[in-house]
Amino acid sequence: MNFLFTPNHVQLLNACYPPTSALLTAGPDYSPNSQELSRLTYYASNHPSKLTKLGSELEKRVKAECRKAQSNLRTRASLLITLAIFRSLATECRRDIALISPSLVASIGAIVTAVPSDLEVVARAANVFTAWTTYTDGHLIGADRTMTQDYIAALTKFASLACSDAHDQEVRNRTRLVGFEALTGALNSEALYNDSGQFRAQVSVMMRPILLTVYQTQIDILETQSDGVKDAPISPYLAEFRTRPAIERRAASIHAHIDGDTGPSMSDVSSAALRALFSLLEHANSGQLGHIMRASLDTLEDPKKSGWTQIEHCCWLSGRAVEWSQYQYRYAIPTWLVERLAENQESATVTPMHTALVAMVKAVFDSSTPLVNLSTSDIVSNLTTLVIRRASINPDDSLLPPLVECIASLGRHVYYSDQIQDLAGEIVNRLVAVEVQGAFNRGDEHRSQAIRCLFAGLLGLIHAAHETEAAKTLAEAPKRNRSSSFKVSSPAAQIAANVELGTPASSRRTQVLTDIWQDTLSLLCDADYAVRADYASGLVFYLENEIPTLPGDVDENGVRRLRRMVESPFQHQIDVKVLMQSGDFGTKFLNAMHAYVYTLATSTSLGFGDNVTNGPTTSEPDSTTDASEVAAPSQGSGGRRSVSSQAPRARKASVVQRLLERAPSRVSGSASASLSDYAHILSILTTVHEQFPIRGLIVGIPMLLALDKAARSADVSEAGAVARAVAIKVVIAKVWLVIGKTWESSELVNLANKALASVPAGADLPSIPELEFGMHPASQSVPFPSDAPAKPWEGLSSETALLAISSAAAVHAATELDTQAILSRLSVQWTAESALKDSVEKPSTFEATIRGDGLSPLLKISPALMHIENASLASLTRSTRGVGVTDLREALEGRSSMSNPALVRPPSLSSTLDHTSSIGIESRLARPRSRTRSRRVPPSGSEEVRDVLTRLGIGKQNGSLLKASFPLPKPGGQRMEA
Where is this chain compositionally biased, Polar residues type (predicted)? Predict the structure, then answer.
């Protein structure tokens, strides 16, 4: 009824309602009078200033009717009509919807709070809410505090409806569907994305019902439904929501029930939840994805839901989150998961959250979904830190194996050519630190487990990269080229295996350089046998797979023909003079490796610092102290471990130097190596001579002669010395057999077979297990048996074997040296200390260059590229040769550690062009550089530049100076060593 002074907008509003007596018969539509409603919406659209008053009037009526709706049918009917009026105003006045927004949102919240069990009323309220979310621009969210609170409250109520646990299945499913429809409207609304501060609050509310439904659905149903989510959007307008202007949008209609329809199933509810999740992930950027993942994991921490225990659902969630996110923002999900894992690394026990997070990370990295922009360096840094921390807490921590798998799975995502090499360098740095300093100052058991885990992660990383490359061509992972047994197969079979299973020549990934891997060689002499065994197997894998070689050509009879010129897998083509002078990284690496092999075979003490193994490894048990009982230091300094005044690499260099100085010149019965260690030594040396024949010949044979001399000098009266000498001679004889087969020396093969036929009983070396990727139980050494040979065994005469290999025609053809020159080179005096120095010290001259003029290419071109007034530096470049293009190329690309920016810095005589390994013997402080610099000369004109280019022999430049992410494959394949 309208009174005398009733405002016009109220009169128009009252006219929309049917008479009070007709309210009960207004069903089932409960719609306002259509003609009067048209007049009201026309009035409101032409008088925007009245919208606020209309909204306030409707809000007042809604709140009054809500209190009576449950017990009064007329009031309930009036409430339904009021909601219909609200929806019409929101739809027709969409341009000015902000004026009615506060009243509309407050009314929706009041209705859902007052009558949550009345599905018809709630469904109509959800209709109004969806209309508002469709047309609003969201600028009031965050700006209007009261409205923001009402909006979050309404979202919370709809989220509660989507989590309904009513006993009746049909009612529960219908209630959940109504809640999800309202939430879906909010997910596709500008109200969600307008204010970044409110995004997190809204997502925290929405993710709870979504995850609750997902975790209550079976995985096979989720897989089936998720496949169709992208192709079947909720509605055409929601699919195009982000591109349509507000004026052209159409609000979705929500119904509680249609007569004749069967009740919705749980599959319908899960489908609605998946579509809501897809809509949320599809539009989120990197920061918003972080909030989504935080809200998801916070939801899983609810103890009532036990979300962390459902590992399969957790992995499904992480995989779909990555797949459904925008391509350029996917990296945020694994990054956030790893950071969340790192935040909880101090826990003394492994919780279900730890297990689930690690499984989720591994699921993401194991998938084929691209993760561009992923900071793999940060990921591997966090994972390795977590590995060390968990190993320091408990060496048998159940989280260590899956963490190692996570590190390895990063090898499946290679996005630039040097990525695996960079990640390997990061892991090697951690290995060096743990090897020297231990795992947060805990006992030896913790240290050994941390080293084994990090090394397993390193091997797994490289293996995963090989698998990814092989899958593109062979559809199977690369395998070891040789069995772990010590019976050397025929050269033809080995060559075929190498060709079939080696890394494809078209590989675009940079291999892990030997100067990076060289820092890990000291693990071969670790005090713990489990570490030594794991590392020896990993070293063989590295030599066979990461440094791919294709042996010489095979003729129709299956006989290998060695190439005349050496083509190194470590660097570009070089001549034998470089190998003789140990001037390339490959030879340096093998020098260091042979030094450690000799030390392992003869040393009476192994390990670093306090972690040293002394005495022989025999079958008698020894009383040892449990290193795990060492008390951890106080963590009063923020949990940071105490560090030495020296850097780990400098400290390691000092310890290695002392270890090599103690390397005896004869085999002693108190040597630390076990019988299994000699089996690993044979495996390593066999691989070297099969994979790198020339370098193995030049570097390995002098070590074999020194090792044979040490074995023959053993004191036969000392307990255990005879058995060790026999084991070493067996290794040497079998290595000579491999060398003879590799170089086709029938004389040497016959000598070796004859010697091996007379091996005394009980002197056979044990077999070693196949390489296992990932974590596995610690290997147990095989000690020398109590019935070891008591009488010396002559073995194979090294002098006779040396003469036989020096006379081999294949050796002459490959080295271009005669028998006397080869004998002179291979019989040089060799010690472990000198070999290690050759592996790290840079040559004093540049005789190893192709020209052999003894001048640094960088020093040659420095006067041409810069105005240098340093007469001393200029004098270094005096040569009988002119400056050419070759000089420029060698200066810029000749050494892996040369830095191009150095060419534009002021010259300095204290050059640091060569990269020194961490095991450098001369670990002294660097010389102070002079602070005086030449006066900067302003650039000269184009004539002077042209003169420099003319002197360098460089004309007009063609092509782009940009460096590609991956190097182009060489047409001739990789250059390999013969």
Answer: 611-627, 908-920
Burial of residue 258 (number of CB atoms within 10 Å: 0-12, 13-18, 19+):
exposed
CA–CA gap between residue 568 and residue 513 (Å, rounded): 13
How wide is the angle at C-alpha 484 spanned by C-alphas 483 and 488, nearest 5°?
60
Residues 411, 468 contacting (CB under 8 angstroms): yes
**What torsion, rounded to 10 degrees, do the Cα atoms 372, 375, 377, 378 define?**
-150
* DSSP letters spanning 409-443: HGGG---STTHHHHHHHHHHHHHHHHHHH-STT--
Burial readout 92-115 (b: 16 or more C-beta within 10 A, e: otherwise): bbbebbbbbbbbbbbbbbbbbebb
pLDDT at 25: 82
What 3-state DSSP class applies to 330? coil
Question: Read out DSSP for 236-276?
Answer: HHHHTTTTS-GGG-------S--TTPPPPPHHHHHHHHHHH
Structure tokens given for 873: 């530096």
Asked if residues 594 and 850 have their Cβ atoms less than 8 Å apart, the reply is no
Measuring CA to CA, how many Å separate 37 from each of 60, 82, 89, 718? 19, 11, 9, 112
Q: Return d(Cα 501, Cα 477) in angstroms, integer.
A: 9
| pLDDT for res 635 | 35
Per-residue tokens: 375: 């900071």
SS (H, E, C) 929-946: CCCCCCCCCCCCCHHHHH
Burial class (CB in 10 A: 0-12, 13-18, 19+), 466: buried
| CA-to-CA separations, 297 to 138, 281, 345, 354, 623, in angstroms, rounded | 27, 15, 16, 12, 48
Query: According to the model, what pLDDT value does residue 310 have?
Result: 93
- One DSSP character per residue, 570-613 reads SSS---HHHHHTT-SHHHHHHHHHHHHHHHHHH-SEEEETTEEE
Segments of the chain with pLDDT less than 70: 1-5, 232-263, 471-507, 548-584, 608-665, 669-670, 716-717, 719, 787-790, 841-978
What is the rounded CA–CA span in Å between residue 116 and residue 153? 13
Task: Tell me which residue of 322, 174, 187 sits closest to 261, measured CA to CA.
Answer: 174
Q: In this predicted structure, what is the pLDDT of residue 428? A: 94
Which tens digits make up the pLDDT trace of 622-656? 333 333 333 333 333 333 333 333 456 555 565 56
Query: Residue 57: how many CB atoms within 10 A of its CB?
Result: 18
Indicate the pairing of strand 553-554 with strand 560-561: antiparallel
Distance of CA 34 to the CA centre of its chain: 64
Length of the chain: 978
What Rg do the C-alpha atoms of the chain give, in angstroms?
38
CA dihedral defined by 571, 574, 579, 584, rounded to 10 degrees?
-30
DSSP annotation string for 123-191? HHHHHHHHHHHHH---TTTTTSHHHHHHHHHHHHHHHHHHT---SSHHHHHHHHHHHHHHHHHHHTSHH
Could you tell me where the DSSP H helices lie in 438-552?
444-473, 491-501, 514-517, 529-541
Closest CA to 678 of 595, 784, 605: 784
Rounded distance, CA 334 to CA 266, Å? 30
Amino acid at 180: F
Residue 209 φ/ψ, nearest 5 degrees? -65, -30
**DSSP bridge pairs for 608:** 611
Which residues lie closer than 8 Å to 149 by C-beta, 6 or more apart?
none
Of the candidates 601, 449, 412, the one whose C-alpha atom is nearest the C-alpha of residue 534 is 449
Amino acid at 766: P
Q: Cα 403 from chain centroid?
A: 11
Nearest to 266 by CA among 170, 371, 334: 170
Provide the β-strand partners of residue 606.
613
Query: What is the enclosing helix (H) or strand (E) of 638?
Result: none
